[in-house]
Design brief:
Strand content: 35-45%
Largest sheet: 7 strands, mixed
Strand order of the largest sheet: 7-6-5-8-9-11-10
Number of domains: 1
Number of helices: 7
């Protein structure tokens, strides 16, 4: 039986070890040894982009932001849903994660990142949101484990009242905020509502009709 092999490692700004592990052609990113994401289970990441981009079908020059590159599954689905004149900005804070996905030897997201519609910035997505008011038709946040951050303590500000206010300001009229979460978070759902957002909650499987359930929050200004 083949074992998982750690093939790349990097450190977060807080000093946590992030590794890219491989097993029989599948990949997992781990943080201090705990699995954060896997190429075997990405159904909820696909669904996040599908729902967040549904209102953009036929829209000219749409512009969306994806916070957190992961293995590029949210990006791939967004590209398939958007027009040829769209712009997709991907904000990823770890240079190593961008490099891993660009490496064609790993068969991850090299082709998607080479799409001319894609712009990748090595930057905290919170800063991108603050710098571009009225800049996006959709903002998809698949950062860390969702509202319960485990990789970087600073990720929590995305899910705070201030973070939600900043995200609202970064939307164009009719825009949508979409959040991925490893588990339901009633406190976050209530905070979304208190922030003047109409909230839709979806539960979906990590892998088709199997695997653990993840929670998606879709929020639109009233």
């Amino acid at each position: 039986m083949k074992r998982w092999t750690s093939i790349e490692k990097t450190l977060t700004p807080e000093g946590k070890t992030v590794s890219l592990d491989e097993h029989d052609g599948s990949y997992t990113i781990r943080v201090d040894g705990s699995a954060l994401m896997s190429t075997r289970m990405h159904g909820s990441e696909d669904k996040l982009a599908e729902l967040a981009c549904a209102h953009l079908q036929g829209k000219r020059r749409s512009r969306v932001l994806i916070g957190g590159l992961g293995f590029g599954f949210t990006l791939k689905t967004a590209l398939s849903a958007l027009g040829a004149d769209a712009t997709v900005v991907v904000a990823e804070i770890l240079a190593a994660v961008i490099a891993w996905n660009r490496n064609p030897s790993y068969n991850l997201a090299a082709a998607a990142l080479a799409d001319p519609r894609v712009s990748v910035v090595q930057q905290d997505v919170f800063d991108v949101i603050c710098q571009q008011p009225g800049g996006f038709d959709s903002i998809m946040l698949d950062v860390d484990n969702g509202p319960a951050a485990v990789t970087a303590d600073g990720n929590g500000r995305l899910y705070s009242a201030t973070g939600l206010q900043r995200a609202r300001l970064a939307l164009r009229p009719g825009g949508c905020l979409a959040f991925w979460s490893a588990a339901p978070d009633l406190a976050f759902e209530r905070l979304l509502a208190r922030s003047g957002l109409v909230v839709e909650v979806r539960s979906c499987r990590a892998h088709g009709t199997s695997g653990r359930r993840h929670t998606l929050y879709l929020a639109r200004p009233k």
